[in-house]
Amino acid sequence: MALRSSVFLLALCIQFLVSTAETNPQEFAALKSLNDQWQNTPPNWVGDDPCGSSWQGISCINSSVISIVLSGIGLKGNLPADIQNLPELTKLDLSQNKGLTGTLTPAIGNLKKLVNLVLTNCGFSGLIPDTLGSLTQLVTLNLNSNSFSGPIPASIGNLTKLVLLDLTDNQLDGTIPVSNDSSPGLDGLVNALHFHFGRNLLTGPVPLSLFSSKMKLIHVLFGNNNFTGSIPSSLEQAQSLQVIRMDNNLFTGTVGLNFTKFPNITTIHLSNNQLTGPMPNLTGVSSLRYVDMSNNSFEVSTIPPWFSSLQSLTTLIMENTQLQGSIPVELFSLPLLQSVVLKNNQLNGTLDIGSSYGSELQLIDLQSNFIDSVEASGYNKTLDLLNNPVCENSEENNCSQVSSSSPSTPTNACETCSSPPITGTLYFRSFTFSNWDNESYYNDVRDKFMSSFKALNLPVQSMSVTFQVVSGDEYLALEVLVYPSGNGLLDRTNFSLIVSQLNNISFVTLGANFGPFEYGYNSDYYRTKKSANIGVIIGATVGGFILLVLLVITGMYAIRQRKRAKRATQLNDPFASWDLNDTTSRPHINGVRCFSFEELKKCTNNFSNTNILGSGGYGQVYKGRLETGLIVAIKRAKQGSLQGLNEFKSEIELLSRLHHRNVLSLVGFCYEQGEQMLVYEFIQNGTLKDSLSGKSGIQLSWIWRLRIALDAARGLAYLHELANPTIIHRDIKSNNILLDDHLIAKVADFGLSKTLDGSEKNQIITDVKGTPGYLDPEYFKTLQLTKKSDVYSLGVVMAELITGRSPIERGSYIVSELKMAMDRTKNLYNLHEMLDPAISEDTTLIGFENFVDLAMMCVEEFGDKRPTMSEVVRVIERILQLADSDDLQSEPSVFSISFK
Fold first, then answer.
1. Domains 593-681 and 689-890 alike in fold
2. Nearest to 467 by CA among 448, 482, 480, 483
3. Is the pLDDT of residue 410 over 80?
4. What three-state secondary structure class fits 570?
């Protein structure tokens, strides 16, 4: 009887617990819809009571779902409208699931209690729904690293509690919405700390009304867009700012900001715009640590006094900013200074580093200036003086190409951990240091994350943080390995919570060294370890033994045959005895790496079609990411275009010796398994042809066209006059001029190049090769290839820069059309109708007539009437000086061109 009573009471208790845990039927239906439409949901998503049976990734209170955290578990599918049937949901984190695609359902706007919406690094596309403006409780909105397009919805301005707005790395376009009588705007986000809009296609001026004194912003990240107009003066009202990124846009005019209004500012990026006027004055900005204003058109000036007064400064980058005169020795004594990059200016005189330079100073890069002597006794860090007068006929180390920093070796990996790590990358969108070897920075990141894991009771034993690379977007990539505690794999709930925390920039302030970050999960954690039953193990063992016996027999025969083949191959293969560790047998290829076929296969995802950058008669070019994180372009020759091995080896030796800012760098090569591949640095913005045709989305102003012509001419002048042996490119065209993320032009593709040895001082007799429309007519007629053949081809490229047209269009030759249309007695030589529409509205085509004159001189029929490439460089430099001058009244708008 007592036993029966006990059983009865136990049954009542179970019934009570089940009834209290039973999930709301409407919410169960919503979760079941997710489970039906998604692939790779957690394996315990079974049964009809998600709250009662604790579905992984789901948190409930009182039978209602309040949180869904499913970060990085490989979900695939769309987000169904049924998500709206979770009315108590406060957090939805589906980050790091690239397989979640399609448009973001407007029904998400019905989740009125939602506080955190995190969709970072998914595959969503289409418009951001206006209904997000209904989520008035939202504090964080992470839509970064998707493929969203169209405008930023003005309705987001209704989210007055929003602290973090992250729209980085999408395809958003249009202008930034601000409020008016009928519509809200982002100026209403007075509690926001983060405006992250970088790496989109946003256009137009940044509205003055966007910023106000009510705002609490600490990060304004607008880099890598197409913003125009001036940098808004109203930015001064956001006095809490720590990071300003306006780089890689189309901003013009004078920078009128008073930076002393920002007492906490640490980082200023204004590089790669079209800013003019005096260089901004940073005197008194005592908290500033990192500043980059490179590649703008500031007034020519001596180095301003504030350079030497910023006691917190770690990194100063002022490349191509019209600086002149000598560098004050006081600059190098700043106590925290790590890097000084003043390339491509007009600095001259003696470089005096002094004896009291800071102990942190790692890099002084002064390439392409006019420095004629150096006093740097005792300084044993990197000093780069390439292309300065002091380097003429010099063999000093600081007069040769300096290799970039390479990733360090992990020093804090877990040696006692028994569980496989969660592997990924932290991308910091701003940082305030440049000494990549200082582990204390990365240890700080690790310690802050470990503290957060501990505070949340997450099962993490250890974490490793290692410098990986600084990308072309000026993002710092850190490799992170998170080692769970215990043995075996984590359950998906804890795994997702850890990945979610790695992507939660609002949880912790990482101090003055690091700005905002984004996490990228890059491994398949649940495939790192698989279980197997005993039967499978036994079967595999027996089968393996039989296979082993067969392999031994086959292997002995194969070894014998291989030895025979190797002896035959060594007679004909100049690479056969190439021991990369034996300096006596290998060719001279300093700084160039020999890759295995498997390495390049892996980094291109098995030469996937999605990685193809372009193709031609030689084969195809693939985009790849090396294990170091470096992004490269891999040129893979198809079987029909393979060179002889001696020729391939000679090409590698030649390209490995080319080191110039305006010549594409060779990273390495591969010649295994019948393959011939060359590995080059990856150039972000594609070809000049892509920009002129509109394919890249980049609109080139007149000034940028002059700069690109100058860069290409400098690269060719280096090949003609400084390379040893002399190189004639033979295929200069807009498709072989690449534009990096700073729009610096680089000459590429040396597949048709010829070298001049000592007996061939000026010309070489060879078959005609090249591209129709760019071919030198004299070379075509006589088979005599000269350096002036490249000059002709560059002249055709200059005609493309003027007109935006291909050399041959609808049977018409652009050079002939220009010559026929020119009238030197009229404004712009009467070429208004032939101008590229992208510059035809520009009323300040300063130096246009001189540029046209120079182009016509380059395409003279006979080579002896064309200028040399160094003469082309000097004329374009003079045109740019004229175009950059603010006092146009003091100088003629056209000057006389003459050559010696």
1. no
2. 480
3. no
4. helix
Exposed e or buried b for every residue in 320-343, given b needs 16+ CB within 10 A? bbbbeeebebebbbbebbbbbbbb
Whether the bond between 725 and the residue before it is cis, its omega within 30 degrees of 0, is yes
Three-state DSSP class for 564?
Answer: helix
How many CB atoms are closer than 10 A to CB 135?
Answer: 24
**pLDDT of amino acid 9:** 36
Calpha distance 70→59 (Å, rounded):
11
DSSP helix/strand/coil, 734: helix
What's the first-to-final CA gap in the chain, in angstroms?
A: 120
Q: Where along the chain do its domains lie?
A: 422-525, 593-681, 689-890
Block residue for tokens 């006093």: 375
Note whether 446 and 516 are within 8 A (CB).
Answer: no
Cβ atoms 126, 151 nearer than 8 A: no
Q: Alpha-carbon distance 585 to 569, whole Å? A: 17
Helices (H), 573-687: 597-603, 645-656
Q: Which residues contact 324 (CB under 8 A, 6 or more apart)?
A: 300, 301, 302, 345, 346, 347, 348
| pLDDT confidence bin for 536, thresholds 50/70/90 | very low
E strand or H helix at 19 = helix 2-21
CA dist., res. 255 & res. 287, Å (int): 20
Q: Which CATH number fits domain 593-681: 3.30.70.260, 3.30.450.180, 3.30.200.20, 3.30.930.10?
A: 3.30.200.20
Query: Pairing state of beta strands 593-594 and 612-616?
Result: unpaired
Band (191; pLDDT cuts 50, 70, 90)? very high
- Residue 582: active-site member: no
Whole-model pTM: value is 0.60
Token representation of residue 729: 């490119």
- Residue 4's pLDDT is what? 39
Instruction: Scan for tokens 């007068």, then name that residue.
Output: 389
pLDDT in tens, 497-519: 888 888 776 544 556 677 777 78
Cβ-contact 252, 274 below 8 angstroms: yes
Tens of pLDDT, residues 661-717: 899 888 888 887 778 889 988 888 889 999 998 888 888 989 899 999 999 999 999
Residue 345: predicted pLDDT: 93
E strands in 586-690: 593-594, 612-616, 619-625, 631-637, 666-670, 677-681
Q: Is the CB of residue 391 less than 8 Å from the CB of residue 384?
A: no
- Active-site option among 166, 711, 731, 740: 731
CATH class of this structure's domain 422-525: alpha beta
CA distance 337 to 17: 64
Under 8 Å between Cβ of 96 and 71? yes
Residue ranges of E strands in 20-170 = 58-61, 64-69, 76-77, 91-93, 99-103, 116-118, 123-127, 140-142, 147-150, 164-166
Residue 169's closest CA among 212, 121, 206? Answer: 121
- Give, in words, the CATH class of 689-890: mainly alpha
Predicted local distance difference test score (pLDDT) of residue 247: 92
Cα–Cα distance for residue pair 796/818, rounded to 1 Å: 11
Q: Report the distance separating Cα 436 and Cα 470, nearest Å.
A: 9
Which 8-state DSSP code applies to residue 683? -
Tokens of 599: 């390495």
Reported as a pLDDT band with limits 50, 70 and 90, residue 430 is: confident
pLDDT band at residue 338 under the 50/70/90 scheme: very high
E runs forming strands in 176-260:
194-196, 201-205, 219-221, 226-228, 243-245, 252-254
List, for residues 807-822, the tens digit of each pLDDT value: 988 778 899 999 999 9
The closest of 895, 887, 875, 880 to 320, measured between CA atoms, is 880
Measured CA to CA, the distance from residue 685 to residue 706 in angstroms comes to 17
